[in-house]
């Protein structure tokens, strides 16, 4: 049986059992080489002009500045980040990382920025950071609420509070009825137990009287002892 060659030279059997894509890794290597050549050419051009070459941090800062300008203020997230989704679970993952910190490694993945973070704190710092928000078209500034918005929010909170209060009242009445029904069942159970106990005592007395009558009919008297003075 033939097997497809993999990047590691093995059969490609791992936690997920997937095959290594040689072309994918070759494409990543070509992209890194192209980026390195462009950076080297840019630094050579800057040196000819008498300028200092750009550092890695300066290039990253320039990329951030080239991002589109934000068009809206900071907004609340509409869905949960599900950070605790896999808490106390054991998962099988591929121990490889994608290009630029892609999603193929273990950790928390950001689809917007195509980056993976090893822990939840780093992931939270990222999704609340300026770079992530810029890609979403948002600033780090919160919109100032108007008087009408504040009044509408207060009315909404009052309505929610009223609904919860009515729910609690309904639950309270239902709980009282449940307690009353339980006490009634317990009283009936005690009465039934007393009735059964009384019936058992009467049956025992009846059986004892029957035994005494049978002994008297056979001529047996009392076996009690008497003292002679």
Automatic annotation (TrEMBL):
Composition bias type Basic and acidic residues, residue spans: 18-79, 182-209
Key words, A-Z: Metal-binding, Nucleus, Zinc, Zinc-finger
Domain of life: Eukaryota
One example GO MF annotation: nucleic acid binding
Gene3D superfamilies: Classic Zinc Finger
C2H2-type domain mapped to chain residues: 110-132
One biological process term in Gene Ontology: mRNA splicing, via spliceosome
Gene Ontology CC terms: spliceosomal complex; U4/U6 x U5 tri-snRNP complex
Region annotation (Disordered) ranges: 1-79, 182-229
Mitochondrion is among the record's keywords: no
Signal peptide, first to last residue: none
Pfam (any one): zf-C2H2_jaz
Protein name: C2H2-type domain-containing protein
